[in-house]
Amino acid sequence: MDRQDKGSKNTNSLAEEETKLLESLGLLNLVQESENNEVSNSSWNQQTLFPSSSSSTSNKILLGIGGTLFLLPHLFVILSLPPVLQRRGAPYLPTFANKLNVMFDLIKRHVNNNNKTFIKQSSSLKFVDLGSGDGRVVFRAAREGIFQKSVGYEINPALHMWVKFRQLITPKYWSSTEFYLEDLWKIKLHNYDVVAVYGLYPIMDRLGKKMQDELKPGSMVVSNVFQIPGWRASTSIGGGSVGKGVYLYQVPGCYRHGHDVNRTQDVSSKDKHKK
Predict the structure, then answer these.
(1) What is the pTM of this model?
(2) pLDDT, tens only, 26-45
(3) pLDDT band for position 252 (50/70/90)?
(4) Which of 59, 63, 100, 102: disulfide with 243, CB 3.0–4.6 Å?
(5) Alpha helix (H) ranges present in the chain?
């Protein structure tokens, strides 16, 4: 015990002498500041290199959400390119609010003005969007309240998953809308009263022939931007001057005489061949 006490006393005395020496030379403050800086730098490095688990997790979540929101539109466009290259569809081109307003104003006006010739009462009308994209046209049709059912067909799986998610989180659309992952060329249009299309020019002629073969009399077709070759817009809404690149056609009055003649000749020749 005596030796330990003597050793500790000697250590304390040496520390005191060192302190007095540094103080006499004016270096004591510099040493203390250096030690304080080392402590603060050590704590800063620990916080920087080893952040808390909660902040690290939240940063990862925010980064994941931001990355998804950034990549999702690009994924929509990329996956819509194969049908375009194969001339089976159009790229993802969203319909903006001003065009939606024009489209549905024309539809409602035409339904009201032609309720005697229209094939059904408005409470049982069926609406279809060929290439429904992110679903905004179908959802808008459902909100208008003039269709019993609003349906969308889309070939892009990413867009289809997105629109099904939107439908899932919005209960008011559960009974009024339906969405299908399907090629528009495999769809039968006999049961639909109003058809919306936003196609590119290369497919419009073929699409027009498909609709002419399948749509029942009284059906309406609303085309955004591109006209349907061989068709004329309904004269009841101003013909080809319909608002800002939105064209409304009513079957069968929209078919031009030349197309009707050609189709009649084709049918008659087939009949003669059968005989």
Answers:
(1) 0.64
(2) 544 544 555 555 445 455 45
(3) very high
(4) 102
(5) 2-24, 28-49, 53-85, 97-113, 136-144, 157-168, 201-214, 257-274
Tokens 């950034």, residue? 70
Q: Comparing 176 with 58, which gets the higher pLDDT?
A: 176
Contacts of 232 (CB under 8 A, 6+ apart): 239, 240, 249, 254, 256
Query: Do residues 80 and 159 touch, judged by C-beta distance below 8 A?
Result: yes
CA nearest neighbour of 129 among 106, 82, 95: 95
- What pLDDT shows up at residue 17? 57
Determine the Cα–Cα distance for residues 35 and 79; give it in Å rounded to an integer: 61
User: Which residues is 177 bridged to in the sheet?
Assistant: 150
The strand pairing partners of 220, in sequence order, are 194, 250
Task: Classify each residue of 184-196 as buried b or exposed e, where b means 16 or more C-beta atoms within 10 Å of its C-beta.
Answer: beeeebeebbbbb
Token digits of residue 236? 């009841």
Highest mean pLDDT of the ranges 28-42, 122-136, 241-255: 122-136
The sign one gets for the Cα dihedral 229, 209, 255, 84 is: negative
